[in-house]
Design a protein that fits this description.
Layout (H helix, E strand, L loop, with lengths): L1 E3 L2 E3 L5 E4 L6 E3 L18 H6 L2 H5 L4 E4 L5 H18 L5 H25 L6 H17 L6 H8 L3 H12 L3 H19 L4 H7 L5 H12 L3 H7 L1
Antiparallel strand pairs: 1-2, 1-4, 3-5
Helix pairs in contact: 3-4, 5-7, 8-11, 9-10
């Protein structure tokens, strides 16, 4: 079992976790749990991001990716992990160059898997999934400005009902929640990883009234910002 940004997820054979920097997470392992951990610096992925700009957005969102343990996808990831571990543990010429190449391959695997997760793998959803991806990318850049849905929809060339309907079909929840969830992720990160006061966090996230921010947070987390920080 794992908790990612306040949401519980079940881990089972074939699970692959994508955890961007500053994602709040914790694990509860059972006996004999086995797996791999790879940490990749964003600066080392410049070549990937230059070639595939969408990869930056795909890799910036926490995700639980599930595949059958014997599937080609799961086996290819395991092979990459084992080869990267072997390279890391050996002191051979061009070691850093080889590890950078493995980092690109691992990031590409997760980028492809995350793209498939968002799109749902259904051709009929491709256009809606593309719209939702562009919306998420726009929110990622502008969530602190609290732009209304009307502005997001206008910039994306669709109506608010169409945007909300697309989000519900692809993500299972409303477009408004996409914005709210992004604010909550950032708020949780600040409460756990910084010493900023609740008021400072509220202003950093674009709230003009700390009291309103506290109500916003408590309504969605079921606990006040101060209590959340104390329990983290």
């Amino acid at each position: 079992m794992t908790r990612i940004d306040g949401r519980d997820r079940e881990l089972k054979p074939g699970s692959a976790l994508l955890l961007p920097p500053a994602t709040i997470h914790e694990f509860h392992f059972v006996v004999d749990t086995e797996g791999f951990v790879a940490s990749v610096a964003e600066t080392s992925l410049k070549r990937l991001f230059d070639a595939e700009p969408e990869a930056r957005s795909l890799l910036a969102t926490p995700a639980l990716l599930q595949a059958e343990p014997e599937s080609v996808e799961a086996q290819s990831l395991e092979t990459l992990m084992r080869l990267a571990m072997s390279e890391f543990g050996a002191n051979r010429p061009n070691r850093e160059f080889a590890l950078a190449a493995y980092a690109d391959l691992l990031a590409s695997w997760f980028s492809r898997a995350a793209r498939g997760l968002r799109a749902g793998g259904e051709p009929a959803k491709d256009l809606r999934a593309g719209l939702v991806r562009r919306f998420i990318e726009r929110v990622e850049i502008r969530f602190q400005s609290h732009e209304p849905l009307t502005e997001h929809a206008r910039a994306l060339g669709v109506s608010v009902p169409h945007l909300s309907r697309s989000c519900r079909e692809v993500l299972g929840h409303s477009a408004a929640r996409v914005i709210q969830d992004r604010l909550m992720i950032e708020a949780r990160r600040d409460l756990v990883y910084t010493s900023l006061t609740v008021a400072q966090i509220s202003f950093r996230l674009g709230f003009s009234d700390p009291a309103y921010f506290s109500r916003f947070f408590a309504k969605r987390a079921g606990i006040s910002p101060s209590d959340y920080r104390a329990k983290a």
